[in-house]
Amino acid sequence: MVKQNRFVLLPLDGSSTSLTALEPARVLADACGSSLRILHICDSELPQTDIREHLGLSEDEVPQATIEIATGNPADVIIEYTKTSLMDSVVMATHGESEQPHGLTGPVTSRVLLESQADVVVIRPRAHMEGIERILVPMDGTPSAAEAMPTALNLAKRTGASIHMLHVPPLRVDATLLEPGTLLFEGALDEADDLQRLRDEFIERFVCCHPSYSEEIPIHLEIGAGEPTQEILRAIRRVKADMVVASWHGSLGSGHAQTLKRLVCQSDAPILVVKVQAHTRTSHLILAG
Amino acid sequence: METEMTSGLKELFSSAPETTWRIDQEGFDPYQEHDIESLFTIGNGYLGVRGSSEPLGRFSRPAMFVAGLFSPEPRLQMPQLVVCPFPFSVKLCIDGHCLDPEPHVPEEHRRILDLKRGMMLREWVLDDGDGKRTALRAVRGASLENRHVLFQYLEIEPLNYSGDVEVQFMIPGSASNMGGISHLTLEEASPLPDIGTISRFKTKNDEELAIASISQPWFSDELEVSHTSEGGDESSDATESWRWHSKQGETYGFTRIVSVSTERMNDSPRDQVILDSQEWLSKPMADVIGGQIDSWELLWRDSDVKIKGDDFYQQALRFYLYHMLISANPDDPEVSIGARTLSGEGYNGHVFWDTETFMFPFFVATQPEMARALIKYRHLTLDGARRKAKDLGFEGAYYPWESALTGDEVTPKEVYVEDEDRAIPIHTGFLQTHITADVALAVRRYWHATGDDTFMREGGLEILLETARFWKSRSVEGPDECFHIEDLQGPDEYHIYVNDNAYTNYMASWNVLRALETLEWMRENYPTDAETILAGCEMDQSEIEGLQDYATRIYFPDDPDAPAIEQFRGFFELDSRTVAEHGRKDGPLSQAMEPDLLQKTQILKQPDILLLFQLFPELACKKGFRKNFEYYEPRCDHGSSLSYPTHALLAARLGKFDMALDYLGLTARLDLDDVMGNAALGIHAATAGGLWQAIVFGFGGLRYDEESDSVLVDPRLPDHWESLEFCAFDHGEIFEITITNNPVSWEIRTRVSENGKTKQIRSSSP
User: Fold this and answer.
1) Which of these CATH numbers, 3.30.70.890, 3.10.450.50, 3.30.1340.30, 3.40.50.620, describes A7-123?
2) CA within 20 to 30 Å of B242's CA: A65, B208, B219, B305, which one?
3) Would B263 be classed as within a structural domain?
4) Among residues B37, B73, B402, B493, which one is catalytic?
């Protein structure tokens, strides 16, 4: 049986904005030891010889990449691709050719984000990535946010990158609304005695418990305070993060995913979006009344 | 096979008390496991064992803590409560394949914290990965009869297979804290032939910890059983194994006794734990469990509070009372209760003002022997407090903000954050002076409640005089002819290096006045003792007169035009906006504001003035209770967990029931719902005491009136509470107080024990 390689999918529509994703996709594929598969979806057949020119690719750019052409609704085609188990991730620019570069993402990227069965890396026009040495994982102390960790750990394991967690604690709205298993700490003065202990607990609870954790992966933890997006953007610059791996509950509706939306619009680093289910209560205390 | 013993264990599950006497966890969540382990701690004041699973897995943070067993933290050389090996560790092997609980979580999992009987019960199903399923039931407890003894009962039932089963009872050869630091070096992990195993460890201070573990099956004699014990070299587990051929659907049970001791408690801990464990293994389970039930019944007789009409608060209160009761040891005055009890590593196991101010009133009111041990601890550590005062250039005794065994200040001067390679300074060790008066208050309240003149003669007065002396030396006389206490931090930790903190000044004045008053009493009743104590303190009459003069001239804000009592000098010149006016609706403002900016506001972490009113209700009557409450409550952002019960208590006394219940809810749920998000580090012990105070002092209206030297009851119950019952000691008598609602009425009975019977000797009603 011929062993098939894992691949990174790069949908290109021939626009300069979609080409933004080329370099990050190549770097990601190289770092993971995967192949790069470029997918062009168009209305009519194109001769193979014209494809590179049509996509704006020179001959010596990503020579090993395979280029596939498909027809149909772009989002439908890409989503269908994500169903294959060999795909690592889809790497896409936030906007395509015909889409205005405002808002979170264009309609194709948005639909892929919503319906993809693989992780999606979104890249805004000015974002860049030259290698994968440092991965930033934004956390808020909830198990749901930590669900991005297995993806980040696997990526770190394959690329040799270090993981930099940024914990920005949520506001204490109502204890009963807190997700079970949430670990809060703000590094406040009164917690100074326990600060290192809480950091250790944070790493143990959200990193070491995952089977994909290995002691060889360097793990760092920073604590932020304030508006989460700004904290994450500052951390990207501070740690020189090559990529952000962030969890997402799967809704882009009004009032949802505010931090992710702002981040996608402003981040200079590609963002690998890991769609997760909200952590559900698999255990509960029986309290009277 | 169904033996008498196995039916006994099943009966323990079926006879578990009703909901308000227990906390059940159903299911298993790896992310919550460290929090749950804190909540489900069992203990007896000497030992505390987290509620970790018996087969330890990736998700567990198992630990046993031994009261008073500290070892220096490597970097700061500050004593840290030692994380000891988990004593209930069990491994199960089926047909030669040992079951590793990772990465699978247990199925059909249920854990019960039996508050009434002081035990933890657990049942679950393990799958070996090949479809062989085994049901397990376990019961564990820490004996109150012999505080060195832990008991564990285990049942194993192959559900869908027959085969060779091996059970290994282990004492791990190493244990480390959250930072991976191990304070213990294994000295011995040996088999005790035909008996079990013995493990010995040494702390960095060379103190020995000995753990004996022995077990026996409940099998019938006809079953062929192989029994081995083994130990080994460095870091080896001590393991006692039982192997036999088990049949599907049959139940196999074991008794295990673990005995633990340290050199502080025993010259030869090794010999002692072997003797203890052998003696206890020979006891029938019915006797061990029966003894445990009897011991706990006695504790609950005086400590229980009955709330009729609100099961949640009933359950939450019992949960917290249980945790206080498993944290105190009436026989061991060398230790006190750490801020996170013996349930977690938080605050290094150190003792704070949390004990005297928040927990102590509960112990004084319901368990005076435990209270005696706790206050005696402050006498045994008085020399440490004297050293601290001297080191900082003061006189008398300056109690440490954080205390361990000796009474020397053990607050870390900084905390080093490894990942960021930076040290954060900690000022509380020399700024939070009020703890000295908090201790003095506890001395007087203990004496008041128990009438224990012996303690006052043997240590209490000495504490009062030495702390009084400290205050005078810590003060400076100003041009206004008042004494001022400067450069300190009150309970509200958002404001540091303040002058004339009202809480501290009032407490200091009270401390000195009561010291002098007690001295007068001693001179009248025990003149020889009084002179001996004065001679021991090297305190002469002129110093006593100086203290008298000092106490009446300590500055306390008294501006009738001020909106409230000023928390410290200059407080009203700060940004006066409330928390809401800062635009912060949720969570502490400290989350969004740098400390130096916060210091320029009137936002409080916890309310100093209101805390004074909690401690001295008569002061509230004189100084405008409602006005102060309504000024400070909106300015408190509750950055401290200690703040909620204070507000609940005072709001109840003001009849603001909705607000009181809101704060009471946050108090009651603090650990059960992990409101602070850090229950993994242990139970918030002060909150436990705070909840009792909020209910008994706030709603029950119990208060000790300093001026009339009496106990008063002035209850205010929420509409849906049908009745409230509690006990409280005063002047050596225990009162049973029953309050019924709608309309409120109450009865106070004094109970004296006569031939084991309760006799009503006095009754009063409103």
Assistant:
1) 3.40.50.620
2) B208
3) yes
4) B493
CA dihedral B567, B568, B573, B578 (to 10 degrees): -30
Which alpha helices (DSSP H) does chain A contain, by range? 16-19, 22-32, 48-55, 74-81, 107-115, 143-146, 149-159, 195-203, 228-239, 258-266
CB–CB contact A283 B587 (8 Å): no
**Closest Cα of chain B to A229: distance in Å?**
14
Question: Between chains, do B673 and A143 touch, taking CB under 8 Å as contact?
Answer: no
Strands (E), B360-504: 414-417, 422-425, 475-477, 483-485
Name the residue of chain B whose CA is nearest to A169's CA. Answer: B591
Residues B291 and B328 in one domain: no
Q: How many structural domains comprise chain B?
A: 3
Contact assignment for B32 to A194 by CB distance below 8 Å: no
Task: Count the residues in chain A.
Answer: 289
**Residue ranges making up the domain that contains B410:** 367-559
pLDDT in tens, B37-59: 999 999 999 999 999 998 877 78
CA nearest neighbour of B508 among B528, B488, B535, B534 = B488
Catalytic annotation on B493?
A: yes
Of A178, A190, A289, the CB nearest to B677: A178
Which of chain A's residues have a Cβ under 8 Å away from the Cβ of B35? 181
Q: Report the gap between the CA of B316 and the closest CA in chain A (Å).
A: 8
Question: pLDDT (tens digit, 9 = 90+) per residue, B3-13?
Answer: 444 456 888 99
pLDDT band, residue A96 (cuts 50/70/90): low
Q: Which of A241, A242, A249, A253 is nearest to A273 (CA)?
A: A249
Query: Which pTM does this prediction carry?
Result: 0.92
| B336 shares its domain with B379 | no
Separation in Å, CA B560 to CA A245, B620, B634: 59, 15, 21
What pLDDT, on the 0 to 100 scale, is given for residue B305?
98
Please report, for chain A, the start and end positions of each structural domain, with discontinuous segments joined by +.
7-123, 134-275
Q: Are strands A35-41 and A7-12 parallel, antiparallel or unpaired?
A: parallel
Cis check: omega of the bond before B743, within 30 degrees of 0:
yes
CATH code assigned at B158: 2.70.98.40
Q: Give yes or no: residues B288 and B308 share one domain.
A: no
Same domain, B96 and B180: yes
Mean pLDDT of chain B: 92
Q: B750 and B726: one domain? A: yes
Residue type, B121: L
In a domain, B640, yes or no: yes
CATH of domain A134-275: 3.40.50.620
- Count the Cβ atoms, other than its own, within 10 Å of residue B594: 9
Q: Does the beta-carbon distance from B314 to A185 stay under 8 Å?
A: no
Chain B hits for A175, Cβ within 8 Å = 666, 669, 673-675
Same domain, B378 and B343: no
Closest approach of A61 to chain B, Cα-based (Å): 40
Q: Are residues B338 and B262 in the same domain?
A: no
Q: Has residue B435 been placed in a domain?
A: yes
